[in-house]
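Case study 2.
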Amino acid sequence: MLCYIGIGSNLGDRAKYIENAIEKLEGTKGIEVKRVSSIYETEPVGGPKQGKYLNGAIEIETQLEPGELMLKLQNIEKQLGRIKTVKNAPRTIDLDILLYGDKKINKPDLKIPHPKMHEREFVMKPLKDLGMHYVGNGLKPFPTSRDGCENI
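Prediction:
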């Protein structure tokens, strides 16, 4: 299944945490990293006062079920020193499932597609780097021909 993962960091050596997280993803059974977007420095959204983030997106291929993938991502966060405190708190690393194929999941602990991603430039810009754009109520691949490009 083709999936998109959001990645971010705003504590310590942010670029190193992102690099380490990508390396750990590459070394995780059941996950193949296909492409990584550009990384952008962005302002935090919500939460306590904190420093700027580095944010990006990762395109992966996986055979893991969404819940299994989420647990793998949480394990990588833990390995890289993430301590969950208050909502939107600063973090060494943040890995979120943005899209899992065309699946829609609405559970208390897992929502796919990520419910607020279309409101967040720090998510949408990296996804655009990977060839995705927002149309109505979802993300679609960029057209491969010139047809429809006037609306992008």
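Residues 47 and 89 are 6 Å apart (CA to CA).
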